[in-house]
Amino acid sequence: MDVWTKIAAEPIAFEPPSAGFALDWRMLESWRARGVGFTTLSHAAGLSSTGDAELDRRLPFDEFYRIPRACASAVEAAKSRSGRVIVIGTSVVRALESAATGDGSVRLGVGLASGRIARGAKLRVVDAILTGVHQPGESHFELLRAFAGDSLLDRMRAEAAERGYRAHEFGDSVLIERQAAA
Description:
The chain is of the alpha+beta class. The chain contains six helices and six strands.
């Protein structure tokens, strides 16, 4: 079975970059026509859950990333005009935040995203995320807690369940904007 996304480049990960399942070239072209800019980076999408509680406490594992000059420049350009950086997937958040400098710019090159991003993490680059519907306890859900408080995430999950949204890798997607610190 082919589980790679329609818009991804070469596979470099164990798991597909599933947040991209929601996108296709026609949608991207529609957004471009409305002035939305895009850039790309390479990353190894990681596991958010194995089903084993002991192993899941150790997730996410380090993830390789490669940020080309065009990506670093696009982030800088967006920030300089007070634009937003909206990413597709938790691994992209980890890559950009791992490559972030103190002023919110992004270092180009290769690296490893390591450690968890969770509630209370100061996001320096990313303003919003398009991601799958993740469950509490998964490392990907913990990352979402850096964007929004538990009450908002609980309401989002309840609404998604009520409307029959599917969770995780082959499920539906949500867009979460970073909330102001309380």
